[in-house]
Write a structure and sequence with these properties.
Length: 667
């Protein structure tokens, strides 16, 4: 059947393998829901819907566990040995199947896991699987505006139809909640971090309240990004100084008003004194002053404030790399208990490859939330086939060494390294009003992978890729293998034809689309491309060692040792930390110039290989989905050539060296 991608990974198409389908159908006869709560209601509804589709038969819901074998029993069991309240345990008991958890929320996650088990074609015979999330707050950050536009959104307009809310609830809100619950996402910030104060008005709060009502039965709490100047803008106060008693009272009152409408409201996300947004520094106060004021207002209701560390100084002679660390590390230990600091994965801004942010490991007394970008602002919008799990994993597995070997970013963020009481991971959403939610079908994999890794960062990129492919595209073994390989290599391919060897931030101005390495002037001086690549007659790259900005000093000595010597610095990070001569011989055996060309040319060529590999899966994939991905790959090929030629020809003006022989032929 034709499928335009709307159903995401929750497809529930009839299982094609008849023998397998019959096995499941015989084994699964009824659903026993036990007590009824809204979340158990969502769980049983989903099980019914899923099994109806997969098995082609109706599976009845009953209240009590009587009747014939083959029951799927949802069971709240406080004695269940699980790490926390959200975990679940799936197992077989005689001829029944138990979905067990300490809470109804655990049952919701367990039900989706049970369905996933069947969707991915696994046997029920020995079923015994437990899982609990490693991170408490697993959230999406939408950068959506009041007018329905999305900052850095590449899949249409906002999902939230503000003008129709609160009266009209688009059924899509429920499907959004189902998709998130299926991967364990339990929080969502519905508006842009560059926040309009209007979201806090009596005009918008009922709309937010209405969305919260749809998300609640799926275990998702709603959050708002706030504008720090709201006391002035909305309250008519003379100041928004966080130490002013009237300002503090304004936030206390506003917070009360919100909780009256949304008793389980999650809290505030704040971008302050960053890229022109207002904040406490406008009044000579610190980020901690600002965060603590909001934390105090939220504390009586159990809410949290999530304060972003994405700040920089626009100093053309400084190193933007160092800004967040310099600003926030001295504040460690000064934040209230219900405040978290949200740190982007890398020190600059969601580039195709960045070293991990040096803040991870540097703030043992302050819970750090990790922010990834799912939307592909710097990774090819929705024309490029880029699977982001390897990027996410690269950061999570990076070793900060702050407490010796094995002090990974994952262990910082999941709280085990420093004993954080609160833990969180956020992903800047890639969803929009496009029929298939994410523009590129592969964007769905990134939403999926983010959720799965926020739940369990130990999962491998490969396991997630296979799981997603089976649920989304096909169960055909050969096709699954091909698509998995395509996914796993796609990010490195993208790095190669855009920013190889540690180049960064050389994309087009404003839109951030395509290459613009020649950009030398910008409203923000540390936003030009030449600021980052520093190409000159001698070489290319940003010296962040002692002879340069010394940003490396923000890392533990062991990390510095890995990256500070240009002879041994791994090539993916080379130009992040070193200015390297064009004719320098690298560990690859090529000169820097030849290696750079090699990466650009091979990277662009890899897209042709991706097209060939994708063509092989045609018989196994829905024709509309197949055509859509094929079309976007063709666009990606065009963009790859553009990147390659723009960068190679521009950098050649400095290197004055010939393009290596193998690449001196027309395409
Ligand atoms: C990037 C992005 C902005 C966004 C900012 C942020 O700079 O281009 O659109 O507002 O990140 O994360 O706050």
């Amino acid at each position: 059947s034709a499928d335009d991608g709307y159903r995401l990974w929750l497809k529930y198409d009839l299982i094609k393998n008849e023998a397998q389908r019959k096995q499941y159908a015989t084994a699964l006869q009824s659903i026993v829901s036990g007590s009824s709560t809204p979340m158990i209601g969502s769980a049983t509804k989903e099980l019914q819907l899923g099994l109806q589709g997969l098995l082609g038969k109706q599976v009845q819901v009953q209240i009590t566990a009587s009747g014939k074998a083959g029951k799927i029993i949802l069971k709240i069991d406080p004695a269940e040995k699980l790490a926390n309240d959200e975990g679940y345990h799936l197992y077989k008991a005689n001829s029944d199947f138990i979905i067990s958890a300490k809470t109804d929320k655990g049952l919701l996650y367990g039900s989706f896991a049970f369905l996933r088990h069947i969707q991915t074609g696994q046997s029920l015979a020995q079923l015994d699987a437990s899982s609990s999330p490693k991170i408490q707050l697993r959230m999406l950050n939408h950068w959506d505006n009041t007018n329905g536009s999305i900052e850095r959104g590449y899949a249409g307009a906002s999902l939230w139809k503000w003008y129709e809310l609160p009266e009209n609830l688009d059924p899509r809100y429920t499907d959004y909640a189902r998709a998130n619950a299926s991967i364990g996402i339990n929080g969502t910030v519905v508006n842009n971090v560059n926040a309009s104060a209007r979201f806090l008005t009596p005009e918008y709060l009922p709309k937010v309240q209405a969305l919260a009502g749809v998300f609640r039965p799926y275990g998702i709490k709603i959050f708002l990004s706030i504008n720090s100047a709201a006391p002035k803008i909305l309250g008519g106060l003379a100041t928004s100084d966080p130490l002013d008693p009237k300002v503090r009272q304004w936030w206390v009152d506003k917070t009360k008003e919100i909780y009256k409408a949304i008793p389980d409201f999650g809290g505030f996300l704040v971008k302050a004194n960053s890229e022109g947004e207002p904040g406490p520094q406008d009044y000579g106060r610190s980020h901690a002053d600002g965060a603590n004021m909001l934390a105090e207002a939220l504390a009586p209701f159990g809410g949290v404030v999530i304060w972003r560390a994405f700040v920089y100084k626009a100093d053309p002679n400084g190193d933007r790399f160092k800004a967040a660390y310099e600003e926030f590390k001295p504040l460690d230990g000064t934040f209230k208990e219900n405040a978290l600091i949200q740190v982007k994965n890398g020190p600059i801004d969601f580039q195709p490859r960045e070293p991990f942010s040096p803040l991870f490991g540097a703030m043992p007394k302050t819970p750090l939330a990790l922010e990834f970008q799912i939307t592909q602002e710097y990774l090819g919008f929705s024309t490029n086939f880029v699977y982001l799990a390897p990027l996410f994993k690269e950061c999570l597995e990076s070793d900060t060494y702050v407490k010796g070997k094995g002090s990974t970013v994952a262990k910082v963020v999941d709280g085990t390294l420093h004993g954080y009481e609160k833990t969180a991971m956020a992903g800047v959403a890639n969803t929009g009003s496009d029929r298939n939610w994410t523009g590129h079908m592969i964007g769905q994999a990134n939403w999926y992978a983010f959720g799965r890794l926020a739940w369990d960062h130990m999962l491998t990129s490969e396991a997630i890729a296979q799981e997603w492919t089976r649920m989304t595209f096909t169960q055909d073994e050969k096709a699954v293998a091909i698509i998995t390989d395509l996914l796993l290599n796609s990010r490195e391919n993208y790095v190669n034809f855009t920013t190889p060897l540690g180049l960064h931030h050389i994309m087009g101005e404003g839109l951030h689309f395509g290459p613009q390495p020649w950009l030398a002037r910008s409203a923000r001086p540390d936003w030009t491309a030449v600021y980052y690549h520093r190409a000159d007659a001698n070489g290319i790259g940003f010296d962040r060692t002692k002879t340069g900005s010394n940003a490396l000093a923000q890392y533990a000595p062991e990390v510095q040792a890995q990256w500070s010597d240009p002879e041994t610095c791994p090539l993916p990070y080379l130009l992040w930390f070193h200015h390297v001569a064009w004719d320098k011989k690298l560990s690859s055996g090529r000169t820097l110039w030849d290696e750079l060309c090699h990466r650009y040319y091979e990277g662009a060529e890899s897209v042709v290989q991706m097209q060939k590999d994708w063509a092989k899966v045609e018989p196994a994939v829905d024709p509309e989905l197949f055509a859509d991905v094929a079309g976007r790959l063709a666009a990606q090929r065009r963009e790859a050539l553009w990147w390659r030629d723009a960068c190679v020809l521009y950098f050649q003006e400095f290197s004055k060296m010939p393009i290596p022989a193998p690449y001196q032929k027309p395409d």
